[in-house]
Write a structure and sequence with these properties.
Rossmann fold; 6-stranded parallel beta sheet; 2 domains; binds uridine-5'-diphosphate-xylopyranose; 430 residues
């Protein structure tokens, strides 16, 4: 099938490449010309495990092309996927201007019947707006349908998730659109759920909100553990063995970050409010998440007493391991909170240093964790990169001024850290 993907970000690029791998003819279009040139020249603009190999393979097959002209690429496509950004506007609503612009441009380019698919996370009822906008701009006689097919891929495992989605949700207005999308996903072994457009839109928001709720729930429990002598890891294990609860997304820590959860919760609460329902639970989930970042700084304060002029090393800047993404990363928040109290912050990350520096230009970056900790009064582990797991505590202790660790992801074994002479604090563990 001929497929056009509008927006060559994380979702667009990975989805487009995966569909090309399945034998479809895919064109990814993006308004960012330097990015398009880079992709055409064989470059990979993001750090995502497996993506360079996937792109290399499909480029060779000739089934993946790039471009900047949305209308031209939409003409002749059977499926047009919208994977443009939906950031949060100052009121907390999803800023849908890119979706609206894409809808208009796609409409002007369509020449034959096509299914236009919302793949970006959008508030419920956006499909309806897209359809109305397109109707005003499409050439006379050209038919189209608007569907919702949300993605659930996680950064760091996006390629794997796109190849084997946990489920394929097809939110369609009719059987004609359903048929087209079923053909698109022929050969995928995942369960397919067919719903109306609104339900599919809601599934995406509700899924992310629920995952974030799990994280905030366990973080709240971790605070209680700290006050009572219970161990949150064991509590989570004990809860997770109940299949109704499940073991995933119960890792206590510095809280969630990334481009999706905070933004989607905000937008979900906002659309709920617009529809006349105050989804207060979501506001509380967000509040617990913010408190968790502040709590890490509080643990540091408990150890160091005064933070002014203390040298604090942050290990890990990416919002989670295996990505260079620092959007809404807890690290940046913690760095700013520390600086506000007069601490001197230095950091290390295996890949996200440059992107973090773009957000905090005067961030002091070191080439490796030991150099980052040289002369430090404390180390805060913010992202649980596998490379940090086997850190040599003795070597670390030797280079530091004071032996203090705040492990904000419960990466290390407390007894090993203490045996090396560290004052060691983690989240919800005695
Ligand atoms: C998320 C959703 O998982 C995915 O389905 C959706 O398509 C996009 O948003 P992503 O943001 O890439 O994916 O990462 P995810 O693995 O979900 O982690 C989000 C944040 O939660 C990270 O900061 C992570 O460190 C944190 N997290 C996750 C926890 O603090 N504890 C956990 O138990 C799990």
């Amino acid at each position: 099938m001929k497929v056009t993907v509008v927006g060559a970000g994380y979702v667009g690029l990975v989805t487009g490449a995966t569909l090309a791998e399945r034998g479809h003819d895919v064109t990814c279009v993006d308004s960012d010309l330097p990015k398009v040139r880079m992709l055409e020249a064989g470059g990979v603009p993001i750090h995502e495990p497996g993506l360079p190999e996937l792109l290399a393979g499909v480029r060779k097959s000739g089934r993946l092309g790039f471009g900047a002209d949305v209308a031209a690429a939409a003409g002749g496509a059977e499926v047009v996927m919208m994977t443009v950004g939906t950031p949060t506007d100052p009121q907390g609503k999803a800023d849908l201007s890119s979706v609206e612009a894409a809808a208009r441009t796609i409409a002007t380019g369509l020449r034959d019947y096509a299914v236009v698919v919302e793949k970006s996370t959008v508030p419920v009822r956006t499909g309806e707006r897209v359809r109305r906008t397109m109707e005003r701009n499409v050439r006379p006689g050209v038919e189209f349908d608007v569907a919702s097919n949300p993605e659930f891929l996680r950064e760091g495992t996006a390629v794997e998730d796109a190849r084997k989605p946990s489920r394929i949700v097809l939110g369609v207005p009719n059987g004609r659109a359903e048929k087209v999308l079923r053909r698109l996903y022929e050969g995928f072994e995942s369960p397919i759920l067919v719903t109306n457009v609104e339900t599919a839109e809601m599934i995406k928001h509700a899924s992310n909100a629920f995952l974030a709720t799990k994280i905030s729930f366990v973080n709240a429990v971790s605070r209680l553990c700290e006050k009572s002598g219970a161990n949150v890891e064991e509590v989570a294990r004990g809860m997770g063995l109940d299949p109704r609860i499940g073991a995933q997304f119960l890792r206590a820590g510095v809280g969630y970050g990334g481009s999706c959860f905070a933004k989607d919760l905000e937008a979900f609460a906002e659309i709920a409010s617009q529809l006349g329902y105050e989804f207060r639970l979501l506001r509380e989930v967000q509040a617990v998440n913010r408190e968790q970042r502040a709590h890490v700084v509080e643990l540091l304060r408990q150890e160091l007493w005064v933070l002014r002029e203390k040298r604090v090393t942050l290990l890990g800047l990416a919002f989670k391991p295996d990505t260079d993404d620092v959007r809404d990363a807890p690290s940046l928040d913690v760095a700013q909170r520390l600086r506000a109290e007069g601490a001197i912050v230095r950091a290390h990350d295996p890949v996200a240093g440059a992107k973090a520096k773009a957000m905090l230009p005067d961030l002091d970056l070191a080439a490796d964790p030991y150099a980052a900790a040289d002369g430090a009064d404390a180390v805060v582990l913010v992202t649980e990169w596998p490379a940090y797991k086997g850190l040599d505590f003795m070597r670390l202790r030797k280079v530091m001024r004071q032996p203090v660790i705040v492990d904000a992801r419960n990466l290390w074994d407390p007894s090993a850290a203490r045996a090396a002479g560290f004052h060691y604090r983690s989240i919800g563990r005695p």
